[in-house]
Amino acid sequence: MLKAFANIHLGGYALVGRSFLLNDTECERCDKKIRHIYNFPNHRVKKGEYVLLVTGVGTDKKYTDIEGDTIHKFHWNSAECIWNNTSDEAVLIQYEVISKHEVPPLDKVGAQTPLPPDTDSSIII
Question: Is 2-94 CATH 1.10.760?
Answer without folding.
Answer: no
